[in-house]
Amino acid sequence: MELMLKGFGEVVKTVTLRVRRYDPEKKELPKYMEYKVPVQRGMTVLDGILYIKEHIDPSLAARYSCRMGICGSCAMIINNRERLACQTQILDLGKDLIKVDPMGNYDLVKDLVPDLTKLFRNHESIKPYIIRQEEKVTGEFLQLPEERELYSMFTECIMCGACLSACPTMATDELYLGPQALAQSFRYIADSRDIGFNERLNLLDSKHGVWRCHFAGACSDVCPKGIDPALAIQLLKGMLAKNVFVKYQQKPAKIGPDRKSILETAQS
Amino acid sequence: MSSQYIVHETDVLIIGAGGAGMRAAIAASDSGSSVTILSKSLLGKAHTVMAEGGIAASLANVDSKDNWQVHFSDTFIEGVYISNYRMVEILAKEAPERVRELEEYGALFDRTPDGRIMQRAFGAHTYRRLCHVGDRTGLEIIRTLEDQLLHRKVKVYDEVFVTKLFTNEGRVVGALGLKLSDGVFHYFRAKATIIATGGCGRIFKVTSNSWESTGDGLGLAFQVGAELMDMEMIQFHPTGMVYPPGVKGLLVTEGVRGEGGILLNAKGERFMQRYSPKKMELDARDIVARANYAEIMAGRGTEHGGVYLDITHKGADFIKKKLPSMYKQYLDFAGVDITREKMEVAPTVHYQMGGIRVDPETTSTNVPGLFAAGEVASGLHGANRLGGNSLADILVFGKRSGEGASNFAKRSGFGSVDESLLIAEMERVKSYLNKDGLNPYDLATKLEDTMSEKVGIIRNGNDLNDALNIILELKMQSTKLGVDGSIRYNKGLLQCLEFPLMLIAAEAIIRGAIERKESRGAHARADFPKKDPQLRKNLIYVRAGDEMKLEWRAVPELPDDLKKLVEPEEY
Questions:
Q1: Residue A179 falls inside a structural domain
Q2: Structural domain contains residue A265
Q3: Chain B neighbours among A 226-245 (CB < 8 Å)?
Q4: Is the pLDDT confidence value at A21 over 50?
Q5: Is residue B116 flagged as an active site residue?
Q6: CA nearest B364: which of B417, B400, B314, B321?
Q7: What average pLDDT does range B227-256 have in this prediction?
Q8: pLDDT score of A2 more than 70
Q9: With a threshold of 0.80, does the pTM exceed it?
Q10: Who among A68, A72, A109 is closest to B489 (CB)?
C-alpha cells in the first residue's frame, strides 16, 4: 500500500527517484538506488527525499533546513542540473524518472551531503567585510539608493554552493576562487562604503583569480536566487585591466551625524 | 565501539549560531576572550535567515517623532504588562546603536532618498520603525554577522549537536557535542557557556520555523537546573502559507500588511473592521491571528482553509521592489502571482516568548556559568512579541550576553568533569543506533499533531489535560527510540537526540497553559476568556528531581520614570 502524505490531496502519479548513494565507511563505490515515491500536487523533491527517509530508508543522508529557499542547505543535482531540492516541484520536472546526485566539485561526506569547506574557505579569503581607514566609526555611513543598487543583487547569495558545482573551471583548478567568492568580492568592492579594492587586488589578480574564468556562465545559469556571478567576474576583469594604467581610486562614502549626539537628542 | 573524544578549551562557548549566538561571539571576542561557537546546521543556515520584515529601532530616520520612550511603551503594552521592564528599556535604548553598528559592518539596507537607513511601518509600532532589506532582512543580518565572525577568527564548529551540558558543583563547565559529518565526539571545556539555540516551533505541526527549531537549548539548560519562564506564551503569526502542504505554515511577512496589504474573508469583507477598527490589519499579532482564526472557524474561510491577503492594488512594480522574496515565494511554491492574485493565509506557530529566565544586564541564568540570549531566553516580549523586536533582541541581548559571559570567564577557571560521565553520555547517544527501537519520526509526528490540535491558538482545559497525558506517555517511550544506520551523518539519530528535549519544551508549554487560567496576549483560553488582574505574574518552571514544578512570581514593578511612559493596564 502506498503511504500518502497528509494534506497533499490525491496521488497524481508515482515517480522513481534514482538517488546516488555513497557511504565512505563502507569502502564501496557509489551506486544508484531507486525509490518509488507517490507524488501529490505541490510536492517538492525535498518532500520526496523526506518521504524516502521516513518510509523507505531512514539512512539516506541529505541536508535541509528552512524549506523555503533561503538557507541554501539543500542544493543538489536534480536531473543533471544544480537546484535547491525544496524549491523544485516534482511535477514541474515533467519526468517519471528523477535522478538525484550530490553536487560536483566537492568532496563527499555521505550520499547527498557535500563537504562545503572549500566554498567557505574561498569566501573567507576575499575579506567579506567593509574595509575602511577610520580607527573608530562615529556615525551611520550614508549611501544613496542608486549606489546601493550597484551591488544589491550580489548580497542575495545564500551560499548554497550550486555555482561552484556547475563551474567548469572549478573542475580543472582545485585552487580557483570560484564564482561565489569572486561575486562576493565584487559585492564589497562595488559598495560605496568600502575602500578595500587594493587590499583584495593580489588575490583577484592571481592565477587562481578572475582570469581563470573563461565565461562559461554556468554559475549564473544555475543560481537559484537569480544572481549573475559571471557578470561580477567580467566587471572585476574590467576594473583590474584599468588598474594597470591608473591606480584604482576609491572614495569612501560619507559618514552621517555622530551617533552619540543622536542618542543624546533622543534621550533629552 | 570505543568511546573516544576530542577535548577543546575555550573561555566562552556559544551553543547556537543564529543571530544571537553570532552577535554574542563577536562581543565576547571583542572583550578579549577566546570564543568557540557551535552550530547544529552549517554556519549561516540558522533560522534567523528566515526573518523577513525588519529590525525595530527608533532611529527616527523616517518619522522624526520616534524615540526610545515610544518604542518602550509600544513593547511593554503589547507584552500585556508581564514583560521585564528593564529588558524592554535596554532594548528600546540600545537597538538604534546595534543597527548602526550592523550598517558599519557592511549590511545592506534599504535607504531613504538622502542615503540614510529606511524604516517601514509594522503591527502595533506607533511610528515607522523597522529598518529593513526588502523582505530578506534576516539573511542580510546572518551574512553580515557571519563575515564578522570570520574576520575575528572565532572558532566555528558547524554541524555539531550538543547532547548534554556538564556541571561541577552547580556551575556549567562544558558541553559534549557530536559532529554529524564524521560522527566524532567533541568535549568543549568552557569557563562560561551561552545558550543561543532559538525557539521550539518545530514541536508544532504548522509552524513558520525551520527544521532546526526544536528547542534544544531549553531542554539542555533545564536539565542542569536553569529556570524557564512564561513558556505558555507561544506566538501565532497571523499570516502563514496554507497551500501547498509542503510549505504549509511558512511565513508571509507582516511587511505585506506594513506596505498596505489588506485581509479579506471568502465573502470579500475586510473583516478587521469588526475586530480592530482603529489599527485594522496592523494591530498586534495576537489580535490579527485570532481574527483570522475566528473568520476561518465561522465558515468564512477560503478553499484551502485560510483568509485572503491582498496587495494587488499596489501594482506590480511596487510589489516586486518592496516584497521581492514574497513575490518569488508564492510564484515558486504555490504558483500564485501576488501582483495579480490574492494570497491565502492562516495563523502559524511563529515564536516562543517564554524561555530561559535571564538577568537583564548580563543575560546570566540562575545556574552559574550559564547564559542565554535570543528566542531561547525570556522576559523581553512578555505575553506577545511585536514584529521586528526579535531581530533587535538578538543584536542587543546577543551583545550583552557575549560581554556578560566574557566577564564571567575572566573571573573563573576551568572546571573538571568526571570522565565516566562523559563516557556514559556517549554510550547513551550510541544506544539509539538500534534498528529495533521505536521510529523517532513517528513519535515526533505524534508530538507535533498533539501540540497543533490541542495546544493551539485557542486553548481549553480538557484538551490541555489530554495533551499532557499524551506527552507524558511519549516521555516514557522516548527512552526506547532507535534508528538504523551508522553514526555518520545520520539525521534519524539526530531526531532521537532532539526528541527528549522537544518533550521538555512541550511539557512546559502545556503545564503553563493549564496553570494560567486567563486569556492574556498570545495565551487564549476558551474556558477563561478574560484577563485576570490577579494573574499579572510570571510563571516560572523549576526542576525538582525529575519533575517540573511551576511557581508564580510577581512581575518587577516599573520605576516612576518608566511608569509615566505607559498607561495603566485595563481589565
A1: yes
A2: no
A3: none
A4: yes
A5: no
A6: B400
A7: 91
A8: no
A9: yes
A10: A109
